[in-house]
Amino acid sequence: MSRAEGFARYGGSVMSQTAPARSSTAAHARGHPFDVRAERILSELHQNGQYKHLRTIEGPMDAVVRVRGFGDCLCFCSNNYLGLANHPEVVEAGVRGLKDFGGGTASVRFICGTFSSHETLERTIAEFFGFESSYTFVSCWNANEAVFPTLCENGDLILSDELNHASIIDSIRLAGTIKKGVARGVYKHNTLEGPGGLREKLTQAKGAGLADNGQIWVVTDGVFSMEGDIADLRAMRALCDEFNAILVVDDSHGHGVMGQTGRGTHEHWGQLGKIDVLTGTLGKALGGAAGGFVAASARAIDLLVQRGRPTLFSNALPVTVALSAETAIRILKREPQRVQRLRDNSAYAREKIRGAGFTVVESPTAICPIIVHDTAKAIAMSKRLLELGVFVIGFGYPVVPEGHARLRVQISAAHTREHIDRLVDALRKL
User: Fold this and answer.
1) For 88-334, CATH number?
2) Which residue has the higher pLDDT, 418 or 399?
């Protein structure tokens, strides 16, 4: 495993903010080796400041949320980029789904778990993002987990950006385990030319004959969740065409955010209709409930339907979520100004945060990382912000490399300028 893989591609878990009261775990860690080991690991997490605490929200997700123990707080750590999580039409669609279709699908897709709402949503996703077909999953983690073990065969090579999401990394590892002849490689983050870059890795693969014996796959995040930077999909498309490689993009933090109409990072780069496989989530900008999808050619989607283990052996996406997500996409198509409002809010936030004396990573996305370097400092700042009524999470090692700890501020179209000003006022008090 590369150093970059070891950094924290662990699903974006948050770092500890307060020391919890110790449980009775120690009392049970006497005889069984597992208990002893678990207690040791948990103690180390406490000592290293890496123990994660779950903050409980008592009410709907919005620009302002009620956090247990802290009252109403401005929320700057949500993926609710377009402010649709609590939109009345999105909520009503879910309620209608519950009334019309019941509480669950009670089956996997190929048995009796395919409902008309799934078909409607999948047609909508394919049309909106510019693909022949799509297929939904209970999460984008499951969607990514299905892609490479299903679509790759012995002799294939997968090249991955070193800072890709954990679900991509695990999918690649799983593909290599299930199909022993699948090779894997990592290229330097967002580097296409030069040492360690994508071209170098593709050239090496061609020289080794991998391009002749199998399919080359190149996979990247569209928007990288910790840095907020984006992949250059135009240049990556050109490289993939040169080496006859398939381009796979996870744009979970890009759709609803990037592009003139919110279709994502491929729209931003003028690549609508030019990406081979797109994965994404319904749990961020598109309603924020849950669920994920793969959009691709009809042939690739049929293979996922036939052989994708995450849907062959797990219940279908709840109809309530399917209807809410489809409604969110319709709202986005009807109200593209939400994307511009998000873009304006993000630019305003960056300007104000820099003006307050903080270092914020430049990016066209809604992710505004404030670099503070030290993990303990990031955790302490996050806790103090919450006490001031501002909900922002501090991230440190192993979620990001050592020395690169940060507060990850996430902007929404639901925020007002006043909300952002209050965020900056709180930052000034740190």
Assistant:
1) 3.40.640.10
2) 418
